[in-house]
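I can't quite decide. Please look over this sequence plus structure tokens:

:::
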Amino acid sequence: MKKISIIAIIMASVAIAGEAFIFATRKDKNEEEAIHARAIRADYRVYAPSIPDSLTFCGERVPLNLYYVRESLDRELVSNMYYQSSTLFYIKRSTRYFPTIERILREEGVPDDMKYLCVAESGLQCVTSPAGANGYWQFMKATGQKYGLEISDEVDMRNDLEASTRAACKYLKDLKRRFGGWTEAAAAYNCGENGLGKRLDNQQQSSYYDLLLNQETQRYVFRILAIKLILQHPQDYGYTVRRCDTYPELPYNEVPLSGQNVDLVAFAKVNGTSYKMLRTLNPWLTSSTLKNKADKTYKVRIPTKKGTEYNTIVKGKHDTTVIESI
């Protein structure tokens, strides 16, 4: 009997100790969670983006008085403001590519805001979409050829910034003539002129903002607007970028390229550069050999003598002024 009592006492003691351990563990965990919660409240901030009282696109008023327009813009501002890596690269690349794009937009009579459409399309890169759209302005092959871009197995002018920007200007002006507004022209650039025309007719509307569209096009113009706001006022959306952080325009000389079955590796070497740099400055060249059966003469860019040296291509490389607007 005495033995049983001792066992019972031991078991009870173990149970009490276990309860005490569980209580202490739970208490420690609760204290850790409280410390963690206080740290988040003190040190971590996620801000809702500011939405302006008024906004225009290509000189056309954005109807922010409509709740669904305002909330659509808010969605794209949040998405782009907090997709920091991509948006930061938009800012960095803009200083390299915007000067050329802005000049051509002026010469072609297209509003400056359309440069943000180029950012929305490609991020200012020569990329190819799953659907086959290519280049800075993401032309499909048929549309690119329609607007004068040479596209073949060895040359793809969708990847030439100047040529593709001029083609995009012609296309956008045609869309503007058909639909009457630059906003609708931008939407049609995304979903196709026939697609937008059909939806305008079927829904008996004249404004992009009043249309029910597929998800991509529904968000498209608002994405352009969000990019415009962030690049125009980067600090207002949390981006602190110094002039010395951005990418400079690359200095180059132009030389003629002609003949058939040209070995581009050898051509680059003769012109004092590498095949890599030849392709970097001329991304419209798509292989290491130019067959050139039509025997055309092309102008190709060759880096200047010190065109690959950081210290020689960056003007104001130590300029730590924070960018206020792009």
Observations:
- The mean pLDDT is 91.
